[in-house]
Design brief:
Layout: H1 6-18, H2 21-28, H3 32-46, E1 51-52, E2 59-60, H4 62-89, E3 94-100, H5 102-107, H6 109-119, E4 123-129, H7 132-141, E5 146-151, E6 159-174, H8 185-189, E7 193-195, H9 201-212, E8 221-222, H10 226-234, E9 239-243, E10 255-258, E11 264-273, H11 280-288, H12 294-301, H13 305-314
Helix pairs in contact: 1-2, 1-3, 1-4, 2-3, 6-11, 11-12
Length: about 325
């Protein structure tokens, strides 16, 4: 026997606990000669006697006592390793890489992560601040598992996208500005504006809103951090068009919030890599979709039959 066997260690511990080779054989569902051979092989491998066997109960030698204590720890570690793999295969543990904008991280993810920690504490979520374009690229490359993205997104092979929620885009402006109850593109285009940069879906959405009214907006500054944008608005630096992600900003007396005319909406979606649509990613999806039924979660977590057939046909 070149290496130690967990079966041999388990037999030794059973003998120490049950007092005899016969009792250990019955408990382990082994033939008595098999138990005898296993202990002989173990003692031969170690080069020392582990048990004193006679008419009475089998007793560990001094060497045996120390080795049995080590054997118990080894068996416990092995059992823990097997259980950990089982939990990972069941999706109860593991690491999920999530991409999202700063706004989604600040307002959408915290309650979802709280629900996840309550029901699946073994799942570790790694959150990365990314634009929607960056998230889609990383999902396709396999370096991201799940992302909150702005819709619509062009189709990306290997990435499954479903709508998540719709948010109204509103105007945040310094409270001391004299403004109408609803703000039009024409009124805002004449004021200093703070916008997300041109690489973001929100910039394109707002630019199209201005364009549809026949006016062109020229932002005073472009910044991809919505909380920082609101801080600049509060300081009187300009107005901003942002999704109404929470009511917190309205509590700042330096900021006024006005609806837009015509109304403007931003649609958010969940994008999942087909390679990581099961396992722990599914439980993160459930945390993000607490009010959805199981079918809705499954629709996000699993590509459609048509997509699967197309993937198979392309191979």
């Amino acid at each position: 026997m070149r290496e130690l066997s967990l079966d041999h260690l388990r037999t030794l511990v059973a003998i120490a606990d049950l007092g005899s080779l016969a009792n250990a054989a019955r408990a382990l569902h082994l033939a008595a000669p098999t138990v005898t051979v296993q202990i002989a092989e173990l003692e031969s491998r170690l080069g020392g006697q582990l048990l004193v066997r006679g008419r009475g109960p089998a007793q560990p030698t001094a060497l045996g006592e120390r080795f049995i204590a080590r054997a118990r720890r080894l068996l416990a570690d092995a059992d823990d390793a097997v259980e950990d793999v089982r939990r990972q295969l069941a999706g109860q543990t593991g690491r999920v890489r999530v991409g999202a904008s700063t706004g989604a991280i600040a307002h959408l993810l915290p309650p979802a992560l709280e629900r996840l920690a309550r029901h699946h504490p073994g799942i570790d979520v790694n959150v990365q601040v990314l634009t929607s374009n960056e998230s889609m690229t990383r999902l396709a490359a396999g370096s991201l598992d799940l992302a909150v993205v702005a819709l619509p997104q062009p189709p990306v092979r290997g990435v499954h996208v479903k709508p998540l929620r719709r948010e109204a885009v509103v105007a945040f402006l310094p409270a001391d500005w004299k403004a109408p109850r609803r703000l039009t593109p024409q009124w805002l285009a004449e004021r200093p504006l703070i916008m997300n940069d041109a690489s973001t879906r929100l910039y394109r959405l707002t630019a199209e809103w201005f364009s549809a009214a026949g006016v062109h907006c020229r932002p005073r500054i472009e910044l991809n951090y919505n909380d920082a944008i609101r801080t600049l608005v509060a300081a009187g630096y300009g107005a901003a068009l942002l999704p109404q992600e929470s009511q917190e900003a309205t509590h700042d007396p330096r900021i006024a919030v006005r609806p837009l005319s015509p109304a403007l909406w931003r649609q958010l979606g969940l994008a999942v890599s087909d390679r990581s649509a099961s396992g722990p990613t599914r439980f993160v999806l459930e945390a993000l979709l607490p009010d959805k039924d199981a079918a809705a979660v499954a629709a996000v977590a699993r590509p459609s039959k048509a997509r699967i057939a197309k993937k198979i046909a392309s191979k």
